[in-house]
TrEMBL record:
Residues binding 5-phospho-alpha-D-ribose 1-diphosphate: R100, K104, H106, E126, D127, L128, I129, S130, T131, G132, K133, S134
Domain Phosphoribosyltransferase: 58-148
Gene assigned in the entry: pyrE
Naturally occurring in which organism (per UniProt): Rasiella rasia
Identification of the protein by name: Orotate phosphoribosyltransferase
Pathway: Pyrimidine metabolism; UMP biosynthesis via de novo pathway; UMP from orotate: step 1/2
Swiss-Prot/TrEMBL GO biological process terms: 'de novo' UMP biosynthetic process; pyrimidine nucleobase biosynthetic process
EC number: 2.4.2.10
Length: 217
């Protein structure tokens, strides 16, 4: 869910401003889920811009408190949300840990890195939600460690039905600063996307799980 329309618009505007939105309809990206996509939203780039990362940090910290109350700790989903998660934890002055997709094969063989108290109230920070699988795996690991997951906050979500169903099934509340709908509005306003790219994106959005580029012969 989007909490504040102004934040959703501003976040989308900032992502476009720093070219964090990549379009490659002829040479699709492969997503974590294995889906092929003409678009990639690289939120990691925001960390390279102090003004923008400070904006995201403050908005996220405020929304964490607004949605879930002050947590005992913040957990970031590795690797995309380690940076932003740490910034949010720092702003709220609470402990931080991050969750790997799976346990390390060497060293201490941890999946959760850092210290997190059993029974503590934790909010999970994610950079981006496509299917929600990565985030929900992190939630699963935290719950297994005896943590009380209050909910999740991400910078961006594509708003796919699959993700909504996955979060509902796992009984995890998801809020995001911005989403695909707001991104498209801002991209059209600023002419970031050409008419051809808009056409590809609407065709892709109809069935993202099975989309493939039309190859001109
Ligand atoms: O909702 P999903 O379908 O799971 O996809 C979203 C996930 O994909 C990206 O991570 P990626 O696996 O590319 O790794 P990274 O965070 O280490 O860059 C992103 O950071 C999310 O965690
Ligand atoms: O699903 C993904 O892997 C994914 C999509 C996207 O737009 N950005 C990203 O970082 N990951």
């Amino acid at each position: 869910m989007i909490l504040h329309k102004e934040t959703a618009q501003k976040t989308a505007e900032l992502l476009l401003q720093i070219n964090a939105i990549k379009l490659q309809p002829q040479n699709p990206f492969t997503w974590a889920s294995g889906w092929k996509s003409p678009i990639y939203c690289d939120n990691r780039i925001t960390l390279s811009y102090p003004t923008i990362r400070n904006y995201l940090r403050e908005q996220m910290a405020k929304q964490v408190e607004e949605c879930y109350g002050k947590p005992d700790a913040i957990a970031g989903v590795a690797t995309g949300a380690i940076g932003i998660g740490m910034l949010v934890a720092d702003y709220l002055n609470v402990p931080f840990c991050y969750v790997r997709p799976e346990a390390k094969k060497h060293g201490r063989q941890n999946q959760i890195e850092g210290h997190v108290e059993k029974g503590s109230n934790v909010v999970v920070i994610e950079d981006l939600i496509s299917t929600g699988k990565s985030s929900l795996m992190a939630v699963g690991a935290l719950k297994e460690a005896g943590v009380n997951v209050k909910g999740m906050l991400a910078i961006f979500s594509y708003g796919f039905d699959t993700a909504v169903e996955n979060f509902t099934k796992n009984e995890v509340t998801l809020n995001t600063l911005s989403d695909y709908k707001n991104l498209l509005i801002q991209a059209e306003k600023s002419n970031y996307i050409s008419a051809d790219e808009t056409a590809v994106l609407s065709q892709w959005r109809e069935n993202p799980a099975t989309w493939n580029p039309v190859v001109n012969s």
